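Researcher: Please translate sequence to structure tokens.
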Amino acid sequence: MTPFRDFALLSNISYQEDEEVVLKINNFINSGQTSLLVQQNQRNYLFFFSLTLPATAINAAFYSNTTQVLYFPPTGGQELKLTQIILPAGKWIVNYSATAVNDGTNGFVRCYVRARETGEILSIHAAVLGTQLGGSIGTTISGVTLVNLNKPTTMVLTCTHDVTNGRPFIDSGAEIVAY
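Model: Translation complete:
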């Protein structure tokens, strides 16, 4: 019984047959399968339950992270390549994050995903880091982008800093993932 009264799951079959169908559906829900075909009276009724929990909805995922602190080059504006993933052709959601730390003069830190083959920056985010007013000693810079690749492409997680002094760094655990 539902708040909308009784209803027949498959209106052309008996209550007992309907109950059998419900049992099959419950077993399906607990099985981890992605589709269910119910056949009754020479008719096909297709029930496609999209149980899209994140773990079951992802066909493939690519992930990479750093395991140590990475210091920026001493001269501002130079790139620091953190980690990379190689993606096959297709549509991908790319997430990235990196925790930047600077206990010196304020300056911008920018982190982005760059397609190695074309040089194109696909997503970029920035933060002001430092010990002066308006800065933060450390912050996580993250972003997400959707890409549609015609051929395999290497996605490189990269960061830069503006200031030519101090020793800003990216903490271990910077990561890039595509799914």
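Researcher: Any highlights?
Model: The chain has two domains: 15-56, 59-178.
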